[in-house]
Amino acid sequence: MTRWLLALGAPLAFAAQPLAAQDNSAKEADMMAAMAEVFAAPPLTAEQQARLPLATSVVDKLMPQGTMGEVMGSMFEGLLGPMMKLAEKAPPDLAEHIGYDASELDLTDEQVIEIAAIVDPAWRERREREGALMQEVMVDLMTAMEPAIRKGMSEAYAATFSVAELNDISAFFSTPSGATFARKSYQLANDPRIMGAAMGSLPVMLEQFAAMEAKMAAVTAELGAKRTYATLTAAQKERIMGLAGLSAEELELGMQVAAEAAAEQNPF
Length: 268
Fold this sequence. Notes:
single chain; mainly alpha; disordered N terminus
């Protein structure tokens, strides 16, 4: 999430950064430009452009001012908040404190907590404050994005619906029931009943992911396995080391770590 926030702010922050940091900013800006190109939509036709004012008025009713901030707030209350509370009860991430994961060192939760407290006596309060700040930051972010989302929705509605359909939609959202629906519809996605149903479907989701993993293995089986350090030729190793600036030991260790990570990889 932090990387996304940095990416969103990269164009604005670029000019203010020292030269040593501008290389990363340029990469972020390039990434955003590439994403904008991938998701570029065709321009509106003259007919669609003529419907844009009507479509904009419909979107104004469908998404009242401040809706996205409210949706993010309700999401924290209904979904992200409980999940973050569970995360707050978990032991600290030892790798953030000493560079090694608890599983690598075979430590108990109590030992991890003791080590973390030595390195950062305020680790628990720091986590709580960061969690509270995350909600505020995300609400502010969604509020800031709302004008752009509103503009995109208006253009999509103008391109999708006819004048008669837009008038019918506008008429509905002009009624008390329509206005109430517009205000509450986005928040319904975070309703405890819907979230409970989704959580109850986790076993089905796991089965589907397991089936997908098996299908992926079958689809790629004829391609053969990736080369390991042991199966690389001496020339191949030399070429990779020359390109990456690695020693033989570093390349072997890196490929071992990559293989172990791939073996442990799962959809979650």
